[in-house]
Amino acid sequence: MTEVYLRRLSRWQAEQQRAAVADVHVTAYRGEAGAEYRDRQGFLDRFEQHVQRLGFDMMVADAGGLVGCAYGFRVERTGEWWSDFRGELPTDIEELTASGRTFLLAELMVLPAHRRNGVATLMGERLLARLDTDLVVAAVDLERPEGEEDSDGGGRPANAAQATVRAWGWSKLGLLAPHSPSAVREVWIRRPLR
Q1: Which listed site, 126, 132, 137, 156, has its alpha carbon 20 to 30 Å from 99?
Q2: Rounded to the nearest 10 degrees, what angle do helices 160-167 and 119-129 cross at?
Q3: pTM for the predicted model, two decimal places
């Protein structure tokens, strides 16, 4: 296996690397055949917005080319991010969001050839290590990629993102359920160690 180097990108560097990051996204999340252009363009549109968000921070894994990426930003104090949360949001979560102390891990992706080598964990640790926040959240898709085994032993679908946040010791908070039933995601949280 080729040695992998981690590096933090500034907002400007992230914008300069957007094509390479989009390539990683398309390869890491291969969808239905023929959807690569739509998937790539959709990611680029989101990435353009994300890179402008308050507190944007990004870590990449490089092995002679990008093989992974993790990035995120602070959740807006308005609490808009939580508008599709099912059920009642705990008061402390509302307070941390309103105080600007919540960070969203927006993307974590690793090329298939570099998975199960600790790359995602290292990127996640380095990205989150210097955060000055009291809560980190991530929204994880519920569906299991085609061909992936049920790995949680509970008879329910598990995907790589669910397995990763579970292995990192994060806690499941609930569900985000926007208008489209196919877009329901689990919300996982972590309170940084001080």
Answers
A1: 126
A2: 60
A3: 0.83
